[in-house]
Task: structure prediction
Amino acid sequence: MLVASWGHRGALQRSHLEALRMSTTSQKHRDFVGEPMGDKPVTALSGIGEVLGKKLEDQGYDKAYTVLGQFLLLRKDGELFVDWLKDTCGANSKQAGSCSQCLKEWCDSFL
Result:
């Protein structure tokens, strides 16, 4: 009985965490994480708008998969990636964190 109760509670906690994540992520984030990357532009990444996108393009990162490549080269280390994104295009902490989380969740789903 205790195991069944714990299992039910765990399922409720997971569903609550999923609902919380859904309420704290943007539609852009959910759209990106919800499908294969394909040939999406860098501005499809959560946290990357037109201004940061142009700065990334000027550095050679024109597609989302090129930024994913850098995320993977940094061994999916969110802190290193955030620092890299700040240095590369001038992203602030919120923008860089949003992009990092987006790529992490995409990797969790597709790699």
Notes: The helical segments are 2-24, 27-33, 50-58, 64-73, 78-89, 93-110. The two ends are 37 Å apart (CA to CA).
